What does this fold into?
Amino acid sequence: MTRTPFILRTPSTLIVLAVLAVFTITVTLLSAAYGTGAIPTSMVKTLGMTLCLALAAVAMDLVWGYLGILSLGQMAFFALGGYMIGQWLMYARTEGIVAASLSGNPIPFTPQELRDGVTNQIFGVVGSAELPMVWGFAHSLTLQLILVVAVPGLLALVFGWLAFRSRVNGVYLSILTQAMTLALALWLFQNDSGFRGNNGLSGLQNLPGLDHVGQARLSVWFLWASALALGLFYVIAAWLVSGKFGSVTRAIRDDETRVRFLGYPVEGFKLVVFTLAAMITAIAGALYYPQAGIINPAEMMPIASIYLAVWVAIGGRGRLYGAVIGAFVVSLLSTWFTGGRAPSINLPGYVVNWVDWWQVALGLSFVLVTLYAPKGIAGIFDLIGRKGDRA
Amino acid sequence: MTRLGRVLPLLAALLMPICAQANPALEAVIADNLEGLERPSRLTVEPLVAQIAATGPEGLALLQAWSERQLGLTEDGRAVIIGDDDAATDAVTGQPVPEADPQMLRPNSGVRGVIESALVAGALNDPDPSRRRAALDSLARGGSFEQLTALRAALDDPDPTLAARKARLERLLTIQVGENSEARVTAIEDLAGDVSLDFRAALNPLLVTRRVVATEEPQGNVAREISIDGDDLPREAAIALLVSEGVLEPRLTSAEQRAALAANLSDGRVGGVPVADLSDPDARDRAYEALEDAGTVPPAATEAEVQAALDAHRVYELYAEPDPAVTEAARAAQIRAQVRLGAMQGIDLGLDALSLASIYFLAAIGLAVTFGVMRVINMAHGEFIMMGAYTGYTVQTLIADRTLSLVVALPLAFAVTFGAGVVLYRLVIRHLAHRPLETLLATFGVSIALQQLAKNIFGTQARPLTAPAWLEGSITINDVISISSIRVAIFVLALLFLGLFLFIMKRTRLGLEVRAVTQNPGMAASMGINPDRIAMMTFGLGSGIAGIAGVAIGLFAQVTSEIGQQYIVQSFMTVVVGGVGNIWGTLAGATLIGGLSKVIESFNPGNTLAAQTFMILFIIIFIQFRPRGIIPQKGRAAEA
Amino acid sequence: MSALLEVSGISKSFDGFKAINNLSFSINAVELRAVIGPNGAGKTTFMDIVTGKTRPDEGEVRFGETGKSLLKMNEAQIAREGVGRKFQRPTVFEDQSVADNLTMALKADRSPFSVLGWRPSSVSVARVAELAAEVGLSDAVDRRAGELSHGQKQWLEIGMLLAQEPRLLLVDEPAAGMTLAEREQTTSLLCRLAESRAVVVVEHDMDFVRRLNCKVTVLHQGSVLAEGSLDHVTRNPDVIDVYLGR
It folds into this structure.
């Protein structure tokens, strides 16, 4: 316990940051906008989105791997972050379009006319003529950016307080988080929830006022933003779990009762980590959906959150780089296999088409990982060096 | 077309085949009464119509044509019927009459009333019950006073059902077209408290109102005065009403104002206001007022004028029915009907809730058993439900007889999912003992693999699992309360499984051992019980019941690879809310969740999404107060 | 000398079974006390109630000079008040090093945010080393607790209790699974600890209790059957009845 700087005590953090930097620079140099063009813009977006998913996985690992709460609702926070930023993106962009079309009239438009025009554009599909209350801040980027962390944070705080206070834990808690996600998704599916029902928010890839920049360059900007966010929060998460705080959370994971008898307010610790993870996940979502371009309530159905857990488990939970590896490997493999580009396997009498069989393979390999490799892919590093620290 | 006109084609179709033969009696009546046919009077026509009707089907056909103004007289004194295709046929012989140029008869409404009631009376007294029924069906859609009179004359009927129907119809018709206010009120009071659709339908037209704008209380049967700016008539709606009634000039919409301003644009100014300022609504008003003063645009209603018009006028609701006694009786009867209707709907809701609860019970019982014994949640439980449903579907493609296929499918589904459960236990769950979260995730892996496998085998489109004919349709108690037979069957199935389960748990060796392992696995093991075998058996049993639930659910829902997913969260909720202590907990949980879903849904019909949202929120709150469910596991072991 | 812990008239039943029946008990600020009793006498439930794990149906538990009621507090609050508990089976955090285990137990502000800001200081490092030495784990400071032997885990847990600096220490069957030499060591440690605080030892083993040489409380069917020196209570006919049967 000497006072070496934290970053030197956790070499894995340095390695992750270095790999991340090399990755980002390589992709930039191969992109269409700033490099050779070997990587098409759509691929740059996919990689940028994968970085966001990796960040969500890091947050999931904080909650599950370090605190022992198998939250099956993390993607609700992810999607909420996306919705919050999506509101501004959609509003501001529609405002620009409506203003342009209204200025064709010799009489300048009133603010009310502009608002009516925007409302009509956005909510025409769900047959609503009034701007819902929840869009009250949509005109302001600053306010919506605050909401990106505030709304999921508050939801996590309230839900967590209720759940932890009544000492719900284990599978009960997992089921409850799943129910929360489902409730939220179902609520958003309604047209009168104010978020355009199952249409969701769309056109998010267009940044208001930046139409002249072009998607090729925007995609690289977002790649950088996502990489920076991942790097920053990775370091914060690693710092968090390296000290006494991390010690206590891991202790809670292993024996909650004993930690109570040591005098630690277990619920408080859970609440801090759960809320923080929700906020990090929301930031990841806020960076993800402008790259995806569209968000709808299906994105937060419980299945998405379970997949997040699957990534963390396959990558290796209880260590942050495991989460990053899991998110990258599984989500990119999924994209590749379900994209129809993976070669089919010709068996006598049957052709194994990966589009059809990838899910089966994923499910079964997940069972195998749980059974035989509980440390996941990251467990390999233990075998190689046995030097890996515990960050 | 008169109301009777709708029934006549039917009668005509019934009568036509017989018309080919000559009818001497009819011929004689026509010959004797040419004058009466041509110029009938209300006084003389009744015996004539009776005479014609008495001659048989041809006579009735003639009467029908007469009332529809399709009857004509030729120069040589023959009566011919001109059909819709303009072809003429002899009314007596039914033979075509080519090149006829008859003089068409135009009976007045009084005469037609007499003819119509004669026709109804004829049909109501027809020896063939199906014709009588047809005539009643037609009358049920509405009738005239003459038809009511004819009905009253024909109340006796050899068929008791038809007699009852006639009596009821007589009351309903009296409500609508009774001879006087007392008769109608009496009829309403006779039926008051009835909740049938036909009675409510008879009341509705009496209570139809329209809104009238007036400066003082209008003539007529006033239902009530509506206060302007109240809940029933917001200010904007009142203004729109005044405008549509023509007592108020329409206000200027902002689009019209802008168009008017744009039309009067000159030198970058409108009415003296610079264009650049016109993004301000106040500036627009000023510009428009300037234009108004200059006379270039028509004046629009100002806010003061609107207010003055609102102050000057009152809004009333007037009944279309002029008789206040009738409307009052109808209103009272409607309130009584609504109260009873509410009660009946409550019962109907209860039945709905019960059947939903049965489904949740069937779906959750397996989950509860495995959770109770092994403390693991099987995420693939929903896929076992799916396997059961697909088993049912497969059996049905092999065995055509639906009843037989169902009889085969139920045990087979149990066997298939029991086997799948045992395999899952041996290959996966056994190796993850005491690691519930890992088990949850591993079984989730199994779940996604099974779902995709089902898609690969059965395709993505929904497969039908059709219930046998005797399970189709529904048990209807009255117009409000009805429940589909399938749901009754599922309820019975759920009861059956409750019974079976209780039997296994309380009366068999297996049940004893299961209970022992649930309460104290270590102690049970030391007494020679093999906990591993017991766990495997319970897991198989739970999975098997899921298979049965799958067949049951498949009978009323489409079988898809996602069928299990639709029920799995509710099943989890059932287990969590009910508590894992025993089967009564599951039952209580299922009842609570099923009942509550239906109740919430009834508050907000058509929005099942909102209902489910509130349901889940309720459960999250419920857990605050009973973290271990309604019926928690007892004892010191549960405290640890 | 005023009582540190004052338990009066508590009862607790599980599904009709009275685990604790109108039990009263008190202990002074500096005292060593052994609580004995056959299985099911309510020893563990008694400790559960004092530490906040179980709520009694009735009765009152007061602690400290001001007589604060413990019944409205949760486990963590009670622990922070200065009640330490050692479980029958050693419960240490096996995934973490001995030093981490001890550091976690060090007396310090327990709230999440101050823990977040907590950094090891020379004082804390020295204190951990001192504690490790006291329980004979100096060589194992950087080892994972899971790698320790059963006895070492027991010692580590005791070390963690010492780090908490409790005013009242509840020890559940410390002698279980210990070698004779370890028992000896434990006895002397407990006696030493009792010089500056209250220590309650719940024990089965009469031999071990005799070594402690302290006041003994005998529990039976959820209430106090006898109290006094060991020789005194072993002469009590009721105690003989309960322990030896008729």
Remarks:
- The two ends of chain B are 82 Å apart (CA to CA).
